[in-house]
Design a protein that fits this description.
This protein has 475 residues and is α/β, with parallel strands linked by helices. The chain folds into two domains: 270 residues, Rossmann fold (3-Layer(aba) Sandwich), CATH 3.40.50.720; 194 residues, Orthogonal Bundle (N-(1-d-carboxylethyl)-l-norvaline Dehydrogenase, domain 2), CATH 1.10.1040.10. The radius of gyration is 25 Å and the shape is globular. 43% of the residues are buried.
Length: 475
Amino acid sequence: MLKKLNRANTGYTKLRPVKVLQFGDGNFLRGFADWVIDILNEKTDFNGDVLLVRPLRKNRISVKDEQDGLYHVILKGLQHGEEISITRLITCVAGAINPYTAYDQFLRAAENPDLQFIISNTTEAGIAFNPNDHDPNALPESFPAKVAILLYHRFKFFKGNPGKGLVLMPCELIEKNGDALKSIILQYCNLWKLPDAFVLWLSACNSFCNSLVDRIVPGFPKETIQEIQQATGYEDKVAVSAEPFYMWVIEAPKYVQLLFPAEKAGLSVKYVDDLTPYRAQKVSILNGAHTALVPVAYLRGLRTVRESVDDAYVGEFIRKAIFKEIIPTLDLPADELKKFADATLERFQNPFIRHELKSIALNSVSKFKVRVLPTILEYKKRTGKLPKRLLYSFAALILFYKGEWKGETLPVNDTPEVITFFKEAWSADDPEMVLHQVLENTSLWGSDLTEIDGLSEIVKKSLLQLETTGMFATP
């Protein structure tokens, strides 16, 4: 007989001081940030709990409502070549508040003297200015405006005490997310005509940290939840599955490392002065390899990331693309890049995550522009040569956007403008003409790629080989 998962049944009845206010109660933060904080509590003297803030009007089941904030995180995947499965009971979530139904409770959270951090994941669209949030005396819609309200209330409650500023560590996947959040909050200060003393306190006494996060968190493990519950002995309605790999890189002042001593706990959290090379590493190796892999693998008849990497041809292709063409364009130490690349390939082979190529194929043109094209250009800049595997992927991408291959409709999914362009380009069924139109289209790539010496010839050779014979070049 399974027990209800709650604090009375588990014995975790003592709550710690709430040190973290977390905007977002979705799978990612619960399987990533809260998991990190739970280990901090175990292995260091952090001794802090998390209070969740629901960022949207729509209500959802929260871990507070159901299970007193308790839930399990199940890590399943490959680690150093071996399959692992680790289940951890998370005890650091003290509760949740909904500012739309309990605005006073939301403001009181700012009065907490123990509060030190604000963490968020409100999606890439969450850090945005909403001009309709024009009344500082009412609950605003946007996430940055909510933070502005909260910080202003804290400033007033503690009478501008410089020691009561907070550390903000947004996890949204946008570049310089901390700087962006601060900039928008300052916009609200101007819109609402808040006092200069508050604006000074905001900038001088609070740290807005740029951060980079990485972990795949599929969410509730519905296929295996029964065996998980039998193993734990508890009924868990909000368990979270995640891959073993994780990375958190944070640009932060030295004092933040003392307040949030993740490295002391042996966690893969890195404090840096500049996370630019780490972002380049992730975008080029992880995201770039994904994007380069899709058209080559799909045209070969493969349908998931795992089977693509396990395929003798495509597996060798993507490994050589990473180690011989992507890594030489990056600036981190070689051993660090190799470690990240090895972990990336291991993540691609995770037997517990079915990652469909067609889902990665969404908006492949814009992804190629951001994730792969800069590597192609940087490789040429550093070596004087062009990376033949990445350009082979470019040719496969152009053919993929034809929308049909060997009588099969391909899962092309992009903006109407991009789809229309490729449809019209391929209507003549002349690969050379298509190639010229694609490469010179500055709206797709930001520049005319026909002007890059040698690029057209290499892509043309691969495209013609694929289109006329269906043959694949050696990886």
